Amino acid sequence: MFVQEEKIFAGKVLRLHVCASDGAEWLEEATEDTSVEKLKERCLKHCAHGSLEDPKSVTHHKLIHAASERVLSDTKTLLEENVQDEDVLLLIRKRAPAPLPKMAEVSAEEKKKQEQKAPDRDAILRATASLPSYNMDRAVVQTNMRDFQTELRKILVSLIEVAQKLLALNPDAVELFKKANAMLDEDEDDRVDEAALRQLTEMGFPESRAVKALRLSRMSVPQAMEWLIEHAEDPTIDTPLPGPASQGEAGAEAAPAAAAGTSAEDEEARDELTEIFKKIRRKREFRADARAVVSLMEMGFDEKEVIDALRVNNNQQNAACEWLLGDRRPSPEELDKGIDPDSPLFQAILDNPVVQLGLTNPKTLLAFEDMLENPLNSTQWMNDPETGPVMLQISRIFQTLNRT
């Protein structure tokens, strides 16, 4: 009587296809209110041929609904897990967790790490106690391998002096001076970084104002943008910069002094021409990056120190900061010092025929002056057909002597 009532009130019977991990397949019948755990027990009995000796085997297996690829919860019923008639279930053994390492294994691993650890100072001293000692100055070792960029500035300073003297000895010194001065004027007044100009015009600034701002800021986009914003209401903002006329007049006045070298006052004329070339160089006087100056002064450094640091490090803020915090070498005074004229390096450079020929070209002097004040322009002059071979020979001679 009770069995019949149980059958009457039992849930819907589901016919489920069960697949085991070993490839076995069978049909299992269960009502909707059957728990997943009970169904799993029945499936395991089917696999184990009716014996369930290990009670943990139930917890070590799981049932997966094949269609939805989800693991069925042991505490829920088939109805709650939305299992339907003719569904396919997978009976899979759970992956066993990795066993905890034994104490002996842990000790062995720690011992291995200790063996691989770098030796401390005392261990090094004990191991090297029998070796002879050498007093080696690290500073000397570092200076033996000289940096080309650091030495290049000294080389350029000395080569500029040689080029000035060679041009002054030339009968056409005045014409050569005018040519060099014209190149410098063209370089300063007519050359505009097109990429920088495009950036400013895309921001909405008029092209004429952008050109003027870039020339005043030495082609620095951030400084040019600051200048344009600060002078937006300035009535003279559209006034063009003065052309090379005044500079040309200065050159014309200096020309007779150079021409006087044809008489007995050759030495005086050469000195006069040297002074003229110094004036050319002063046209490129250093301008510190305004933002870098403010940032470094906010760290507590004096303005003069900051400007010196930026000049030494070519307006590179990070390098300037390291210079201020370090030994401050090279010093600003060393920037204008040339290389020792009796050094093997300088003699080898002067003995090179390509360099000798290049020093008689005013464009080479212009390139040296430009690289001296704008080291980032070195690539431009290296690619120039007239100045590139000279720079290449200087670099090769330096590298050769530096290795030997």
UniProtKB/TrEMBL annotation:
Kindly list the biological process annotations in GO that this record carries: protein maturation; protein ubiquitination
Entry superkingdom: Eukaryota
According to its UniProt entry, the function of this protein is described as: Non-catalytic component of the KPC complex, a E3 ubiquitin-protein ligase complex that mediates polyubiquitination of target proteins, such as CDKN1B and NFKB1. The KPC complex catalyzes polyubiquitination and proteasome-mediated degradation of CDKN1B during G1 phase of the cell cycle. The KPC complex also acts as a key regulator of the NF-kappa-B signaling by promoting maturation of the NFKB1 component of NF-kappa-B by catalyzing ubiquitination of the NFKB1 p105 precursor.
Q: Where is this region: Disordered?
A: 101-121, 236-270
Q: Which GO cellular component does the record give, naming just one?
A: Golgi apparatus
Compositionally biased residues, Low complexity: 244-263
Please give the SMART domains that the UniProt record associates with this protein. STI1, UBA
Q: Name one Pfam family in it.
A: UBA_7
The record's annotation in CDD domains points to: UBA2_KPC2, Ubl_KPC2
Under the subunit heading, UniProt states: Component of the KPC complex composed of RNF123/KPC1 and UBAC1/KPC2. Interacts (via ubiquitin-like domain) with RNF123. Interacts (via ubiquitin-like and UBA domains) with the proteasome via its N-terminal domain.
Picking any one GO molecular function of the record gives: polyubiquitin modification-dependent protein binding
Task: Copy the pathway line from the protein's UniProt record.
Answer: Protein modification; protein ubiquitination
Q: What gene, per UniProt, encodes this protein?
A: UBAC1
Keywords in UniProt for this one? Acetylation, Cytoplasm, Repeat, Ubl conjugation pathway
Principal localization reads: cytoplasm
Q: Which residues form a coiled coil?
A: none
The record's section on InterPro entries has:
STI1_HS-bd, UBA, UBA-like_sf, UBA2_UBAC1, UBAC1, Ubiquitin-like_domsf, UBL_UBAC1
Protein name in the entry: Ubiquitin-associated domain-containing protein 1
Annotated Basic and acidic residues bias: 108-121
Which subcellular locations apply to this protein? Cytoplasm
Q: Does the keyword Ubl conjugation apply?
A: no
UBA domain residues:
191-231, 287-327
